[in-house]
Amino acid sequence: QVQLVESGGGLVQTGGSLRVSCAVFGRAFNNYAMGWFRQAPGKEREFVASISWSGGSTYYADSVKGRFTISRDNAKSTGYLQMSSLKPEDSAVYYCAAEPIPGQYVGNYYSAAARWNYWGQGTQVTVSS
Fold first, then answer.
1. Which of 56, 12, 51 has its CA nearest to residue 32?
2. What is the DSSP string of 67-127?
3. For the segment 23-32, what is each residue's pLDDT rounded down to a tens digit?
4. C-beta separation of 20 from 37 below 8 A
5. pLDDT for 30-66, tens place per residue?
6. Which of 1, 35, 70, 118: disulfide with 49, CB 3.0–4.6 Å?
């Protein structure tokens, strides 16, 4: 069983930066690709970014491209989402997800939440205007 624990959420002003982390427990982290999703009140869960098991391939939603960076440290079994130039519309609960995807492709096919079987509990990010 894989367990994911997010941390690092909080309140930040428009234009600010924040990094959220996802610690993975239970299985070899480098067997799993990682994704980040977010969900605002009254809205569906939305894809943000994904990264392959090796870190060699990444994919971003258009809404965050150029502002957010996904990364991972396999030695620490931890994934990260660095968020910059934050906007009020980025406010949401941010969830990390993991899936044993053996290849490097983590593109559009994996932008659907249903493709991911392991989820964290979420961390709140609020961007004030």
1. 51
2. TEEEEEEGGGTEEEEEE-S--GGG-EEEEEEEE---SS--SGGGGSGGG--EE---EEEEE
3. 999 888 889 9
4. no
5. 899 999 999 999 999 999 999 999 999 999 999 999 9
6. 70
**Does residue 4 surpass a pLDDT of 90?**
yes
- Give all strands of the β-sheet with 3-7 in edge-to-edge order: 3-7, 18-25, 78-83, 68-73
- φ, ψ dihedrals at 111, nearest 5°: -80, -5
Q: Distance between CA 29 and CA 55 in Å, rounded?
A: 12
Nearest Cα residue to 80 out of 36, 39, 37, 124: 36
